[in-house]
Amino acid sequence: MARPTVLVTGGTRGIGEAVCAALADDHELIVGGTDPAAVDAACERYPSARAFAADLTDADAVERAVRELGLERLDGLVHSAGLLGSGAFRDLTRDDWRRTFEVNVFAVADLTRLLLPALEAAQGTVVVINSGSGLTANGPGGVYSASKFAARALTDAMRDELRPAGVRVSSVHPGRVATDMQIELNEFEGREYDAENYLRPESVASAVRAALTATPDANFDMVSVRPGPAATNRS
C-alpha cells in the first residue's frame, strides 16, 4: 500500500518543521515554504519529500504551484504557516489587518479550495494550526486573535461542509510554543525569552499526527494543547 501524502505549509521551521519530522518515517511529504532554498534544504532532511515553494499571499503563485504538483490524491493538508501581527489597536493600520488575515485566514481557505479535489479523492484530512488566541482574545495583539477567531470559524464551516465528501477537518490550538514567533512576541512584550518556559514544537506535532492518523470513524474536531507542569509559563 502506498504511503499517505501530506502537504505541510510553513514546513521549514517551527511547528511545521516538527510536523514534517513527526510524519517523515511513514508519509510522503510535500514541504511548503516561501523561500525555495529553505524548502529544498528541508526536503533533503527527509527520506521522501517534494517542494512546494510559494508565497501564500500571492494567489497566482499559489495556484501555479498547486498545478505544478499535479496531485490526484492528497491524504493530508496541514496549515502551519502563520503571521503574528502584534501591535496595539490604536497603532494598527488597515494594511496591518489585511496582511495578518491574508496569511492566517485567506491563504488557508484558498489553498484548501485548490487542493479539495485531491483531498476528496483520498478522503483526506485538513489540519489547521490555530492558537490559544483563537479561543480567548486579549489586547494588545487583537489583530492576531481576530485572525485566529476567523480561522476557527472557517475550520468549523469547512468541517460541516466537507463532511459529506469524506474530508475530515481538525483545528489544533497550542498555547505558547518555543518558536521564532515566540521570540518575536517576547520582544514585543519586552520580556526575556527562555525556550524552557514554553511548549516544544514536537508536542504540538504529536497532536497534529494524531489528527491525521485517527481511524476513519473518528475526527479530532478541536484539540487544545496547553503547557504542562514542566513548562513554567502557563499562558
UniProtKB/TrEMBL annotation:
PROSITE patterns tied to this protein: ADH_SHORT
Classification via Pfam families: adh_short (PF00106)
Source organism superkingdom: Bacteria
InterPro entries on file: KR_dom, NAD(P)-bd_dom_sf, Sc_DH/Rdtase_CS, SDR_fam
Key words, A-Z: Oxidoreductase
UniProt xrefs under SMART domains: PKS_KR (SM00822)
SUPFAM superfamilies found in the cross-reference section: NAD(P)-binding Rossmann-fold domains
Oxidoreductase among keywords: yes
Full protein name: SDR family oxidoreductase
Organism lineage string: Bacteria, Bacillati, Actinomycetota, Actinomycetes, Micrococcales
